[in-house]
Amino acid sequence: MDEEKRPAKDISAPGNASPALSQHGAAKHSRQNRKPFRIPVGVALGLVFSLLLVAICGLIIAYMAAADRRIAGRLLDQQAAAILNANQAVLDKFFSEQDVLLRTIAVHAAAMQRHLNGADFEAFKELLPENTEFELGRSVMDDAPADALQDVAWSAFEWREGQAEAAKTAELDLGNGQRLFVHYPRAVFLDVARDMTWDSRQQVFLLSGRNNVIVVHGLQGVDYSATPETPLPLLKQMTETPLHQIWDAGHQAHIIDGQISGRLFPASGGVYTAIYTELDTGPADGWIIGTLYRADQFGEALDQTQVVLYAALAALVAGAALSFVVGRKLGRPLARLAEAAADLRKLEFHEEHRLPSSPLAELNDVNQAFNGSIGALNAFAKYVPRQLVTRLIEEGMTDSRNIELREMTIVFTDLAGFTSLASNLSAEETAVYLNGYFETVSKVIADRDGTIDKFLGDGVMAFWGAPSDQPDHASKAIAAVTALADEIEKDNALNMRLRIGIHTGKVVVGDIGSASRMNYTVIGDAVNVAARLQEYGKHVDPGAKVIALASGDTMAQLPEGAKATSLGPVKLRGREEALTVFRIA
After folding, report:
1. Beta bridge partners of 160
2. Residue 402: domain span
3. What local confidence, expressed as pLDDT, does residue 15 receive?
4. Are residues 207 and 287 in contact, defined by beta-carbon separation less than 8 angstroms?
5. 565 and 526 share a domain?
6. Strand partners of residue 505
7. Taking every annotated instance into account, which residue ranges of this chain make up the domain HAMP (predicted)?
8. In which order are the strands placed within the sheet that holds 167-173?
C-alpha cells in the first residue's frame, strides 16, 4: 500500500495483557461446550404416542412370547430326544445282531466238536458286514464250564499292521480250544451312520471321546491312514465338516439348554446346532453319537410356533411407526424453523431458508417474522467478516471481554502502483478492479484457514492463530502467500502487481472498540512489522509482479528445507533494531 494511504494512527502493543481476561474466556468457553440434552418436539410427540401403544400391547405380546418359547422349547427337546433315541437304537441293534451272530458261530463250533478252519466261516461271511475279517487263535484256559457260552468282548479301535484304517475287534471263546476274532473296520460304521440319517438336513457323527472321529456321514472319501499312536482321525483334522469346531469356545458358542445335550456354535458357512448322547455302557462305551444341523433348520419348529408372535410384533411396530410419523408431522414445522435458525446462526442466507406459510396462525406469524430477519441480516452480513463471525460463534467467543495475548502470524498485502492505475480508470472500473483483487486474495486466505481483519484502501490485512488455535499458523500463512503469488504470476488475466509482508509475534487479539461498535482485531508491534515488510518490498524489487518478504521470526517456525532467499539484517522504517528478512516470492 502507498504510504499516504496508511491509517493516521500507529499501532502499538500494550505493556501487558490481563491473564484474568483469558481465564474468563476459557471458563466461559468450557461452560458453553456442555450443551444440555434437548429432544425435538416432533420426536417427543411421536415417542409419546408410540410408547403408549408399546406399553399396552407389549405386555400382551411378552406373555404370548414367553408361552410360545416354553412350548417350542418342549417341542424341540422332544424332537431331539426322539432323534437321539432312534440313532442309539440303530447302534444297539447293530451290536446286538453281531453278538447273536458270533454266539451262533460258537454254537456251531461246539456242534462240530473239532477245530474250525476258514472254510467253516464261508456261510457266516455273508451275514457279517462287508470288509469284516475273521481271525482264529488259541483259547486260554479258564474256569468257565465247558458248555457255557462266553460273552463277546469288544475292544476299542486299534491299529492293525498292514491295514490303512483302524478296526474295532469282537473276541469270543468258541469252547473248542479256539478263540474267534472278528475285526470291524471304520468303514463298517459308515453304513450304521447312514441308517441313522432320517433326512438330508442331518449329518450323523460317531466320535470316540471328544477328540477322535469314528465316522461322519457324508465324508466317506476322507483320506486318512491309521497309525499306532492315532488309530482314529482327530476331530480337528476333519475340516471338511463344521463339526471340527464343535468344542471351540467363542462369543456365540454355548451349550443348549434343555433335557438333551447339545451345543450351538459358529463355523465357516454359518451357525450350527449339534445334539448328541455320550454312551457309557456296552460295546460303544466312551462313544458320542450325535447329529449336526444348521441352526436355522433345527429351529424350524420354533419358527413355526412364532408365526403368530411375529405377526403381532409386526403389527405393533407398524402401529408404533405410524404413531411416530404422526407425531413427527405435527412437529415438523418447528423442526424446520430450528434448522433455518441454525443456518442463520452460521450466517447462511439462501432462498431455501425462507419458511413457508402455515395453517397454524401462531406458527405462520413466527415464520413471517423470521423471513424478515433473514433479509435484514443478509444486508448486514455484507459489511462484516462473515467467516470471522462464524468462527467466533463456533468457538463460543462472543463475550465483549474476549481479549487475550497470543503469538500469531500477520500478513499485509498491497497493490503496487494502484494510484497511477486508478487515475486512468473510471470510478466503476476502479471498483470492479478492486473487487476482483479482493476476491482473489480473500479466497486464497480463506482456503488456508486465515482470517481477513480488514480492507485498507487497496490493501488487505489478515492473520492466522485466532480465534481458533493454530499451532502451525506460520506455515499456513506462508502457504497462503505462496499460493497467492503463484496464482498472480501464472494468470496473465490478473493485471496486478502485489507486495506482501509476513511477520510472527506476540499480539493482543480480541474485541476492541466501544459498547456500540466493536472489531475483532489484533494490535501490537508485530502488526507494524508486517506492514513495514510489505512497504519495504518496493525497495527490494520495484518492478516485480509479486514480492513477498517474511521476517526471520516467521521463517524460524517453518519446517526445515523451506525455500527462501535471505536478504540479511534490514532496518525497517520506524524501528531502531535491524530485522532479518527473507524473500519467499
Report:
1. none
2. 3-34+391-583
3. 42
4. yes
5. yes
6. 408
7. 328-382
8. 133-138, 178-185, 167-173, 153-154
Q: What is the mean pLDDT of the chain?
A: 79
- Window from 19-28, 35-44, 390-399, 451-460 with minimum mean pLDDT: 19-28
The residue out of 277, 305, 333 marking a domain boundary is 305
pLDDT number for residue 507: 93
Q: 78 is written with which cell numbers?
A: 422332544
User: Mind listing the pLDDT tens digit for each residue in 481-502?
Assistant: 999 999 888 877 677 889 999 9
Q: Considering only CA atoms, which of 513, 404, 514, 408 is closest in space to residue 462? A: 408
* 517 sits in which H/E element: none
Q: How does strand 287-294 pair with strand 270-278?
A: antiparallel
CA distance to 218, 221, 383, 403, per residue, from 232 (Å): 17, 15, 89, 83
**481 shares a domain with 371:** no
Domain boundary among 245, 277, 305: 305
Q: Are 175 and 146 in contact (CB under 8 A)?
A: yes
Looking at the 3D structure of the chain, how many domains does it have? 3
Q: 435 and 350 in one domain? A: no
**Cα separation, 451 vs 153, whole angstroms:** 96
The pTM score is: 0.45
Backbone phi, psi, residue 70, to 5°: -65, -45
Q: For residue 315, tell me if it sits in a domain.
A: no
- Provide the percentage of residues in the chain whose pLDDT is more than 90: 27
Residue 314: inside a domain, yes or no? no
Are 113 and 64 in contact, with CB atoms under 8 Å apart?
A: no
Residue type, 227: T
pLDDT at 270: 86
Instruction: Confirm whether 537 is domain-assigned.
Output: yes
Q: Are residue 355 and residue 410 in the same domain, yes or no?
A: no
pLDDT at residue 407 is higher than 90: yes
Asked whether the predicted pLDDT for residue 21 surpasses 50, the reply is no
Q: What is the secondary structure of 143-173 as a DSSP string?
A: SS-TTSPPPPEEPPPB--TT-SS-EEEEEEE
Q: Is 275 within a domain?
A: yes
